[in-house]
Write a structure and sequence with these properties.
Blueprint: H1 4-11, H2 15-38, E1 49-56, E2 59-66, H3 71-78, E3 97-100, E4 103-106, E5 119-121, H4 134-141, H5 151-166, H6 185-191, H7 202-213
Parallel strand pairs: 1-5
Antiparallel strand pairs: 1-2, 3-4, 3-5
Helix pairs in contact: 4-7
Length: 216
């Protein structure tokens, strides 16, 4: 006959064993809670500021900015130049395009303090008083804007693109790198590919750029 008494003592916990295990778990839990309560609380670091001097549309501005301030935010939030738009804020839509020392950049991807002494041109700086820049006039004439949100970036990018073409810079669709590229529709579309128009006014934008290129 099988002796069950030995098996019961081995596998069936006694009341004393259970109570002892519970006490040990309670002690462990209290210890872990104590560690969690003692963990340091993360706090945001104090902002670091830096003076920066920018020439915006021909006027010198001396600012003291948080070093994390983008050029786009410096223009919009500190100088009230709201023509440059914040679209994707990731450099993918081109709505924030401005010209820095004549070259187009996505201002949302560039820190303002990186441009000490630079000359920045925004959409507000293209017109000559009440006379529109040829690109602005062409966009109006060809209805190259619809909602208009992307238009400042499109126009600044077009100005930079035409300067690059004039300087002989090739693009990915330039067939003969030994010759100066012609302003074909394919060249315009490729060179403007970083600027997205969600209204899909691309045919009108291409027509406006082609028209303005003869007047700049």
């Amino acid at each position: 006959m099988t002796d069950h008494s030995t098996r019961d003592r081995r596998f069936d916990p006694s009341r004393r064993t259970v109570m002892g295990s519970c006490a040990a778990l309670a002690t462990l839990g209290a210890s872990l809670r104590g560690r969690a309560e003692a963990a340091p609380v993360a706090v945001d670091p104090q902002p670091q500021t830096m003076p920066v001097s920018l020439e915006i549309n021909g006027t010198r501005h001396n600012l003291t900015l948080d070093t994390r301030t983008t050029l786009l935010d410096a223009l919009r939030e500190h100088l009230d130049l709201n023509g440059s738009k914040k679209g994707c804020d990731h450099g993918q839509c081109g709505a924030c395009t401005v010209l820095v020392n004549g070259r187009r950049i996505n201002s949302c991807l560039s820190l303002a303090v990186m441009h000490e002494g630079d000359s920045v041109t925004t959409i507000e700086g293209l017109a000559d008083g009440d006379s529109l820049h040829p690109l602005q006039a062409a966009f109006l004439h060809h209805d190259g804007y619809q909602c208009g949100y992307c238009t400042p970036g499109q126009i600044c990018s077009a100005k930079g693109m035409l300067s690059e073409l004039e300087a002989g810079w090739p693009s990915h669709v330039t067939g003969d790198l030994t010759q100066k590229a012609s302003l074909t529709d394919e060249e315009i579309r490729e060179r403007m590919s970083g600027n997205i128009c969600r209204c899909s006014a691309y045919p009108n934008i291409v027509a406006a750029i082609r028209d303005a290129s003869t007047k700049i």
